[in-house]
Amino acid sequence: MSDRGFSPERRADALVEALPYIKRFRGATVVVKLGGNAMIDRALAETFAEDIVLLRSVGLRPVVVHGGGPQIGELLARLGKETEFRDGLRVTDSETLDVARMVLVGKVGRDIVGAINVHGAHAVGLSGEDGGLIHAEPRDERLGYVGDIVAVRPGIVERLLDEEMIPVVSTIGSGADGQAYNINADTVAGALAGALGAEKVIYLSDVSGLLGDVDDAESIIAKVTVPELSAMQADGAIAGGMIPKVTACIEAVEAGVNSAHLLDGRVPHVLLLELFTDAGIGTMITMQATGETSP
Questions:
Q1: Is-catalytic flag, 245?
Q2: Residue 113, CA distances (Å) to 17, 53, 165 in order
Q3: Which of 33, 156, 167, 232 gives a 20 to 30 Å CA spacing to 65?
């Protein structure tokens, strides 16, 4: 047995199981949203970087979109600035916006780029302000500089992918007048996946997937269609922080993304388990029901 407890036979079986998925997804664009909570654990951040590099190495085209809510909140607290939330969204005045830009673009994004590039890949950090990537407008004056996406112009990301780079996107957009806006990272991931015609959009957070019973962590819904998910929303079965994720998944699939996935980013190598194993892990959302066992 190896020091990780896997015999050569089990390792070989894993590679054989992964092979058809690697062939199937070669050349496919996959947008991965990494939640701020999933980046706090250094060991998990390192395994995430390894997974992204592996995806690129076997021919996929990964794009990383990241949040940073906990990190923004921590810095605001250190500065003695109170944070107000309305309907789950951070009220963002000019000072809070400066902090958000500093944390997302200058800290969290750079940390992800650095972690990936340790493995010899070519991650490149950019903001939604760069190259006119994310055009936004204010959502509600009561929220300050919180933005809604008006348009995604993915040209800069497509050029990086064509150069075999790994784009790492911070979710700050800009208005027609150049004003910056803080935008929900779940929303950005779904909209960018749709604009890129991605094969998949994958959300990594601190939940195991969509639950049939919010009080039962084992009640994960493995597969659900957009109509079924929309009905659950209408019935009020989706609540809290899951609302923007589910909405973004629906919009991405409706925009042509083949499938959206809700995964527990606390599980080491969860990306590989979802993409390259028969069983998969978490919740997969598609437009129509499918009898396939593959992700």
A1: yes
A2: 30, 11, 11
A3: 232
Give the span between the Cα atoms of 244 and 247, in whole angstroms: 5
Q: Which of 245, 265, 280, 282 does the annotation list as catalytic?
A: 245
What pLDDT does 173 receive?
Answer: 96
> What is the per-residue pLDDT for 81?
92
**2 falls in which pLDDT band (50, 70, 90)?**
very low
Q: Is the pLDDT of residue 7 over 50?
A: yes
Please identify which of the residues 186, 194, 200, 209 carries the catalytic annotation.
Answer: 186
Q: Is the pTM for the entire model greater than 0.85? A: yes
How far is the C-alpha of 167 from the C-alpha of 156, rounded, in Å?
Answer: 9
Residue with tokens 């992204």: 52
Q: Which range among 116-120, 174-178, 259-263, 280-284 shows the weakest confidence by mean pLDDT?
A: 280-284
Q: Where are the domains of the chain?
A: 11-286
Select from 3.30.930.10, 3.40.1160.10, 3.40.50.200, 3.40.50.300 the CATH code of 11-286. Answer: 3.40.1160.10
Per annotation, catalytic residue among 35, 67, 68, 69: 69
If DSSP codes are grouped into helix, strand and coil, which group holds residue 1?
A: coil
Mean pLDDT, rounded, for 2-11: 54
Residue 10 CA to residue 287 CA, distance in Å, equals 35
* Tokens representing residue 59 in the block: 């021919």
Candidates 35, 36, 144, 209; catalytic one: 36
Q: Which residues neighbour 116 within 8 Å (Cβ) at sequence distance 6 or greater?
A: 49, 52, 53, 64, 123, 166, 168
State mean pLDDT over 71-91: 88
Query: What is the four-CA torsion angle of 255, 38, 274, 18, rounded to 10 degrees?
Result: 120
User: What mean pLDDT comes out for the span 126-143?
Assistant: 95
Is residue 33 among the annotated active site residues? yes
